[in-house]
Backbone:
């Protein structure tokens, strides 16, 4: 015997919204699953005429669709946007986020890179031995580098970003102002 509730829904979008809502509230989801659920929700609301880029009117107040979702989920809209950004990652990087080997913030920053650059990052940082795991600040630097037309994302840049920085000890020299004025 399985307990169930049968609902009459008028169309496929409504049915999908019921499934998304149920999955988000009754299951432990991987970051990728959560991202795709949020993205599907935003797509459905976009098809219904809700503005997913600006504001839409609901109950007389102005809400962005991501704010409506955040309110329904009890989560921050920034976190929801981060999960949605994950859906632009290539599959191997998305799997690393799901496994907890790449942080959510790092994955979000990497998602802004082109697929080609993401592949270079994956091959250099995670598929090779020894690995060179990235931190969020590395991923932000890669994003800035890709936006700069004079720079390219390649193994040299990744090596530079992930290299262990040697601390340089600076010596202090004190000069009297009278001696300095002579020059």
Residues:
């Amino acid at each position: 015997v399985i307990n169930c509730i049968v609902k009459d829904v008028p169309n496929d979008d409504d049915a999908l919204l019921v499934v998304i809502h149920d999955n988000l509230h009754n299951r432990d989801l991987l970051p990728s699953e959560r991202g795709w659920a949020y993205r599907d929700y935003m797509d459905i609301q976009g098809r219904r005429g809700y503005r997913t880029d600006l504001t839409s009117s609901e109950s007389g107040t102005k809400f962005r669709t991501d704010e409506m979702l955040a309110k329904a989920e009890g989560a921050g809209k920034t976190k929801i946007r981060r999960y949605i950004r994950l859906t632009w990652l290539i599959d191997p990087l998305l799997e690393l986020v799901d496994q907890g080997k790449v942080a959510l913030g790092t994955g979000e920053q990497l998602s802004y890179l082109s697929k080609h650059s993401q592949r270079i990052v994956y091959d250099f940082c995670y598929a090779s031995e020894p690995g060179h795991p990235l931190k969020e600040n590395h991923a932000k630097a890669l994003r800035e580098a890709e936006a700069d037309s004079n720079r390219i994302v390649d193994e040299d840049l990744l090596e530079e970003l992930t290299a262990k920085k040697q601390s340089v000890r600076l010596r202090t020299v004190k000069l009297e102002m009278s001696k300095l004025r002579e020059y």
Notes: Strands lie at 56-58, 61-63. The chain is about 55% helix and 5% strand. The mean pLDDT is 82. The first strand starts at residue 56 and ends at 58.
